[in-house]
Specification:
Spore Coat Polysaccharide Biosynthesis Protein SpsA, Chain A, 2 domains, seven-stranded mixed sheet, globular, alpha/beta, 13 helices, three-stranded mixed sheet
């Protein structure tokens, strides 16, 4: 079973949590797993982590460091399409997978790094694509996005089961990049939109549990618990991420449990800076019974607004 992740230095820790969650969820010998880490630089913590996956757990590991030649096709993307909200250029690395892995495997499971695997991937790996190039879960905003783009269906690209031979034969990556050279192309979700425009609904619809698109700020507590419980893959797909200190503790726990169990050497969380972030953090502290911490963050918010009022 081949599994690919694409990331840059900022997402190395999150790759480690996602990759190790696969090992924790796996129901057979992990020697049958091959991880492909596709990135634009080689760091000492990353190399050490991959070596420990191989030595301590028996996984096969391939580190693919993208050079200038590898990334040259992405140079054609118009600057307008290189960033949108929390999405940025490393999201495009997945378009390079079919060429980069052509001598390794004909099929791969691609996973974003902002997710946690909670069930064995063997069922997903064995899924019949029924003549399609890719298997994917419809986006939670499928109806709106499909209508916006004038297509019948729209998938979320955070979890993809890819037929790499068919993908290369039809030039899917090249055609997606062609669309993104044009600044007028409507692509708020960058390459995800481009892939949907190229494939135009030709994807195998996977069970939604394989990509539970999780947004706790839009869910009640019981809805969060139910979504986590039923997920085969829990995808933190919005700009709010579990490694942010103000993220709801219960919702982010699967991420931290996977990271803590992994051999990744550090545990970094993004600290609150803005008043809104401190407010959310204060609420989280209050709801979890940490009243002193909650008061401290409310005090910081009060000081912030008092300072504004004096100017």
């Amino acid at each position: 079973m081949h599994i690919a992740f694409c990331f840059d230095a900022a997402f190395e820790q999150h790759f480690a949590a996602a990759a190790f969650s696969i090992i924790l969820a796996h129901d057979g010998p992990v020697c049958g797993l091959t991880f492909h880490a596709i990135t634009d630089r080689k760091s000492e913590p990353l190399v050490t982590f991959l070596e420990q996956l191989r030595a301590r757990h028996g996984c096969q590991v391939e580190l693919h460091v993208l050079n200038d030649v590898d990334q040259a096709p992405l140079g054609r993307v118009h600057p307008k399409h290189l960033r949108s909200g929390h999405l940025s250029k490393p999201a495009y690395f997945r378009l390079l997978i079919p060429r980069k892995l052509q001598y390794h495997t004909d099929r791969v499971i691609y996973l974003d790094c902002d997710l946690i695997v909670r069930r064995p991937l063997s069922v997903l790996w064995d899924t019949e694509l029924e003549g399609n190039i890719v298997g994917a879960v419809p986006d939670v905003l499928e109806i709106q996005l499909a209508k916006r783009h004038g297509i019948e269906a729209y998938f979320n690209s955070g979890v993809l089961l890819m037929d790499l031979v068919a993908w290369r034969d039809e030039g899917i990556s090249e055609r997606a990049i062609d669309l993104l050279t044009n600044p007028e192309t409507d692509a708020p979700n960058l390459d995800q939109c481009a892939l949907n425009l190229v494939l135009r609904g030709r994807f195998c619809r996977l069970n939604k549990d394989w990509n539970v698109q999780f947004a706790p700020s839009r869910m009640k507590g019981n809805e969060q618990t139910e979504a986590i419980s039923r997920s085969a893959i829990l995808h933190y797909y919005t700009a709010q991420k579990p490694w942010q200190a103000w993220y709801p503790e219960h919702a982010g726990r699967p991420y931290w449990l996977a990271l803590e169990a992994s051999p990744w050497p550090t545990r970094h969380s993004e600290q609150a800076v803005t008043a809104q972030q401190h407010y959310q953090l204060a609420r989280n502290c209050f709801e979890s019974g940490r009243l002193e911490d909650a008061i401290r963050h409310y005090d910081l918010i009060a000081r912030h607004y008092l300072k504004i009022g004096t100017h």
